[in-house]
């Protein structure tokens, strides 16, 4: 999947916001293109393209860069100031697709400064699992399945969840989400210390 598959709500061009965030966070960390690319396991030319706004990142590439930079995923997206009351309809939100699975992630609420938690709505279809490499140390993931059935949790021992089931697991270990039924969706909260 590519950045062309990112559906903006607040941003006219999400690639530009991602590019600016990558440049900002790399400068803040005092790291070279080469070092960030190496840490993320991507080509330096790919990172250069992403920082220029010309790249087409998958959710896997973006997560790898976040881990390399020590930032939360939500920091890559420019979000408008939060209103007093916020409603996000089921068909709204910034969608980022997986490269290897029929999996979509929609950021519902980014944590304000000095608060470390983000909310996502996940939709997935049966097929390949969405495998995640470890996030930053101290990350916990909380998932409540809304519909369908899914294997969720640590890669070594995922749990089968049904509607309304909840699981929490360390996001700083390899983990996965695999839909077992069509129309599977969940709410996920990432928290970090």
UniProtKB/TrEMBL annotation:
<dbReference type="InterPro" id="IPR014710">
    <property type="entry name" value="RmlC-like_jellyroll"/>
</dbReference>
<dbReference type="GO" id="GO:0003700">
    <property type="term" value="F:DNA-binding transcription factor activity"/>
</dbReference>
<dbReference type="Pfam" id="PF01381">
    <property type="entry name" value="HTH_3"/>
</dbReference>
<protein>
    <submittedName>
        <fullName>Helix-turn-helix transcriptional regulator</fullName>
    </submittedName>
</protein>
<dbReference type="InterPro" id="IPR011051">
    <property type="entry name" value="RmlC_Cupin_sf"/>
</dbReference>
<dbReference type="GO" id="GO:0003677">
    <property type="term" value="F:DNA binding"/>
</dbReference>
<dbReference type="GO" id="GO:0005829">
    <property type="term" value="C:cytosol"/>
</dbReference>
<keyword id="KW-0238">DNA-binding</keyword>
<feature type="domain" description="HTH cro/C1-type">
    <location>
        <begin position="22"/>
        <end position="76"/>
    </location>
</feature>
<dbReference type="InterPro" id="IPR010982">
    <property type="entry name" value="Lambda_DNA-bd_dom_sf"/>
</dbReference>
<dbReference type="InterPro" id="IPR001387">
    <property type="entry name" value="Cro/C1-type_HTH"/>
</dbReference>
<dbReference type="InterPro" id="IPR050807">
    <property type="entry name" value="TransReg_Diox_bact_type"/>
</dbReference>
């Amino acid at each position: 999947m590519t950045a062309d598959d990112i559906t903006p709500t607040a941003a006219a061009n999400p690639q530009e916001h991602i590019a600016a965030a990558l440049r900002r966070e790399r400068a803040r960390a005092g790291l070279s293109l080469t070092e960030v690319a190496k840490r993320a396991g991507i080509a330096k030319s790919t990172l250069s393209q992403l920082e220029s706004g010309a790249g087409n990142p998958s959710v896997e590439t973006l997560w790898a860069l976040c881990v390399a930079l020590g930032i939360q995923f939500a920091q890559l997206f420019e979000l408008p100031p939060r209103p007093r009351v916020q409603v996000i309809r089921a068909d709204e939100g910034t969608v980022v697709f997986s490269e290897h699975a029929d999996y979509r992630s929609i950021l519902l609420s980014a944590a304000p400064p000095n608060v470390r938690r983000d909310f996502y709505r996940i939709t997935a279809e049966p097929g390949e699992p969405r495998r995640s490499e470890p996030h930053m140390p101290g990350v916990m993931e909380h998932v409540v399945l809304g519909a369908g059935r899914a294997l969720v949790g640590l890669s070594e021992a995922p749990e089968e969840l049904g509607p309304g089931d909840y699981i929490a697991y360390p996001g700083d270990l390899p983990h996965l989400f695999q839909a077992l039924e069509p129309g599977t969706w969940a709410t996920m909260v990432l928290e970090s210390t």
